[in-house]
Write a structure and sequence with these properties.
Length: about 160
């Protein structure tokens, strides 16, 4: 019975998705996230569940925007690696790299394991922007119970907001 209930919820959940807007992008989420925390002028963090403190979060979503000017100033240094180190505290290589649909294109889903800030698995996606910049999404997973559907919906719905 529980199996069928979970299947029904998985099929209906996208109908209940909320839309979140951040740093000029929008994405759908089947789960209620915390209010965004500003990590820098171009970086925001969301937690789940929304009503839990960070140390009790099941997972965290970090959205980081890298401008074309920043990339040019880095002169050959990978800006995504810099962001992974600065905002996630990860200096190791990914343990696996999978394919994922992100910003309408095939992208690398880099998967890391770390103990920062506590034992977790981290999925990192990044994509090029038309202006020469990049955007990075990092999903830090402490407890994967609700993560699968969330990851699928966010990575496929993430897109620039229309210009007004």
């Amino acid at each position: 019975m529980v199996k069928y209930l979970m299947l029904a919820l998985a099929l209906v959940a996208p109908c209940w998705a909320d839309t979140v807007e951040v740093l000029g992008f929008g994405f759908e989420t089947p789960l209620e996230l915390s209010q965004p925390e500003e990590l820098s002028s171009s970086t925001r963090s969301f937690g789940f569940p929304a009503d839990k403190p960070y140390k009790e979060a099941e997972f965290e979503l970090v959205v980081h925007l890298i401008s074309a000017q920043q990339i040019k100033a880095m002169e050959g240094i990978d800006p995504v690696e810099v962001a992974i180190t600065n905002f996630l505290g990860i200096t190791s290589k990914p343990i696996e790299i999978n394919k994922a649909l992100f910003l309408g294109k095939t992208a690398a889903d880099q998967v890391y394991e770390t103990n920062i800030p506590r034992k977790c698995r981290v999925h990192v996606l990044s994509g090029a922007l038309p202006d020469g910049g990049r955007v990075m999404l990092a999903f830090r997973v402490f407890d994967g119970q609700h993560f699968g559907d969330f990851f699928r919906v966010v990575k496929t719905s993430f897109a620039p907001l229309p210009k007004e």
